Amino acid sequence: MAGPPADPVTVDSATAGSGATASALGGLIASVRASVREREVALVGIAAVMGALAGLAASAMSQSTQWMHEALFRLAPGDRLSATPELASPWMVLVPVAGGLAMGLIALALQRWRRRSFVDPIEANALHGGRMSLTDSIIVSLQTMVSNGFGASLGLEAGYSQIGAGIASRLGLSFRLRRNDLRILVGAGAAAGIGAAFDAPLMGAFYGFEIIIGSYSIPAAAPVLAATVSAVMVARLLGVHVDPLNIPLDVVVQPLDILPIALLGLLAAGVAVLIMRLVTGVEMLFGKSGIPAPLRPAVAGLGVGALALYSPQVLSDGHGALHLQVDSPVVLSVAIIFGLKILASALSIGSGFRGGLFFASLFLGALMGKLYGGALAMLWPSLQLDPAVCAVAGMGALAVGIIGGPLTMTFLVLEMTRDLALSGYVLAGAVVTSLAVRETFGYSFSTWRFHLRGESIRGAQDVGWMRELTVARMMRTDMATFAEQGTIGALRAAFPLGARRMVVLVDGAGAYAGLVRVVEAHAAEHDPAEAASRLATHRDHMLLPAMNVKEAALAFDAAQAEDLAVVDDPATRRLVGLLGEAHVLRRYAEELDKARKGLGAEA
Q1: What was the pLDDT predicted at 346?
Q2: Are 217 and 174 contacting, i.e. CB atoms less than 8 angstroms apart?
Q3: What is the pLDDT of residue 48?
Q4: Residue-wise burial string across 53-85, b where 16 or more C-beta atoms lie within 10 A, e elsewhere
Q5: What are phi and psi of 74, to 5 degrees?
Q6: Residue 483 pairs with which residues in a beta bridge?
């Protein structure tokens, strides 16, 4: 039996109350978003919260992979995989194989359910205004954990950076931050993840500035520093701590030692380029081998495991091995491990394991510097430059050659060694390496891989606005057209002086046939009975709608034209618009000025 009808007054009151609550909540959200966009302190607050989340995520990743090492390789609690004297059993060579099979299965799943390519923080800031997918970032982080946890010769740094930046981008998009603020927040997120993992707030901050944001600016300083400090504090509360490097207490560095350190920087540049090309070569060999892509990580895992039979120092990122090598004697095994680690890292990343060369490059740099110091001691005994100093300088130099960021690596070495006196020498070697790599090769590892994919970006500087400012957005579609079969007299009648500056000629099918200046058509020396097509210019110089502003400017320069027609396709030549060089240059200058102000050049 139906109950009595509801009281309409009660229902209306409830509905009105619900609507009022929703309206109030919406107003509050809008107010918070407006405050974040208008007040710098609000952005700093968001960065601090985001940094805490990034620190939590980085700590979880670090602890989880350590547990995986202990379980899979039978390590004692707290022992580092790369610091173990030998594998607990020869069968341990199959652990990286199992990791490779897992990576292959993940790759197959992603091909089916998530086919788009993942965007990393550098690409996000360079091309997409800081927009990233948090889901994709979580997937990348899990892939790096699988790779590192099963012993692949790669670090977790790509995952640390990715998850921090992904969290930052998601928060920034929820608050509808402006493009430049979102880029800063993404840089702060990546900085927070890296800083928390290494217990190095200064290194993390400059990683954000140099590598993810692409510049240092006053507006970016407070959010980035707030994020890294917050992340490091959270990581420390959770017990994540990196032991300082032990270097001899009696190390004395002379001013003239800067010269052999600079030479070490040149050597590091050559090794860095060699490693980057080797990784690409391994990737190409796998591509030509006929081995199915999902099985390639397993094959590489077998190779890495076999190398680990000689020394487990080739496994994982090399945290433990670095502490073993810095202050130990220079022996032949150092050179062997150096070569094996390069091969293991190239196999890992070239076959499809996910991870970074950040810490691997530090470890390789330490080995390189140690060998260099040992060679100097034999060839030039009076120099008395301790191999441990060369190892520390080599760390920074090789890492700069592969990853980039001279100040980033200098601060990392400073925070790892706690030795301020060495920082100047480390910076000198890093600057020489950076300059040499840029002059001879032109890329860091991340930008080199962008280049191989067909991207032209050289860093995280924001060039996305340039790609978004296309000819289609700048052109005018109300251009004046005239049949190319018509006469000059008819053109004069249709377009008196002052009515139009430029007329576009089209053929009978509507295809572009050239440009005619109205002033030129009204010149007295031209016979009115002649065909207007005789005055046509730039018949074969056209723009396409998809061209960006830079490509359009280059096209104007090549054609030596003030105006160019825009066609849908070079084959059909169907006219879709007209664009002037002056408008292109003005729009380019406006957008460039916006980007310059966003970098902090002006308040």
Answers
A1: 94
A2: no
A3: 95
A4: bbbbbbbebbeebbebbeebbebeeeebbbbbe
A5: 55, 50
A6: 506
For helices 387-403 and 358-379, the axis angle rounded to 10 degrees is 140
- Please provide residue 463's backbone torsions phi and psi, each rounded to the nearest 5 degrees: -115, 5
What lies within 8 Å, CB to CB, of 342 at 6+ separation is: 275, 278, 364
Report the distance separating Cα 301 and Cα 154, nearest Å: 12
Q: How much is the pLDDT for 54? A: 95
Buried b (16+ CB within 10 A) or exposed e, 281-292: ebbeebeeeeee
Minimal CA–CA distance to 516: which of 560, 476, 482?
482
Predicted pLDDT of residue 438: 87
CA dist 400 and 397 (Å) reads 5
Q: Are 481 and 505 in contact, with CB atoms under 8 Å apart?
A: yes
**Bridge partners, residue 548, by sequence:** 470
Classified as helix, coil or strand, 566 is strand
pLDDT at 226: 95
Dist CA 80 CA 100 (whole Å): 21
Query: What string of H, E and C letters represents the secondary structure of 505-531?
Result: EECCCCEEEEEEEHHHHCCCCCCCCCE
Sign for the CA dihedral angle at 136, 138, 143, 148 comes to: positive
Query: How does strand 563-567 pair with strand 575-580?
Result: antiparallel
3-state class (DSSP) for residue 386: coil
CB atoms within 10 A of CB 22: 10
State the Cα–Cα distance between residues 553 and 576, nearest whole angstrom. Answer: 18
Q: How far is CA 556 from the centre of its chain?
A: 32
Question: Rounded distance, CA 191 to CA 165, Å?
Answer: 8
Enter the tokens of residue 337: 């491990």
CA distance 349 to 345: 6
The greatest distance separating any two alpha carbons of the chain, rounded to the nearest whole angstrom, comes to 106
Q: Please state the φ and ψ torsions of residue 511, each to the nearest 5 degrees.
A: -85, 150
Q: How many residues does the chain have?
A: 603
Q: How far apart are CA 170 and CA 153, in angstroms?
A: 31
The CA-CA-CA angle for residues 528, 530, 534, to 5°, reads 120
Residue 602: its pLDDT value, please? 43
Handedness of CA 499, 502, 506, 510 (dihedral sign): negative
Q: Find the helix or strand (DSSP H, E) in which 211 lies.
A: none
Instruction: Extract the residue ranges of the chain whose pLDDT is less than 70.
Output: 1-38, 246-252, 448, 450-467, 592-603
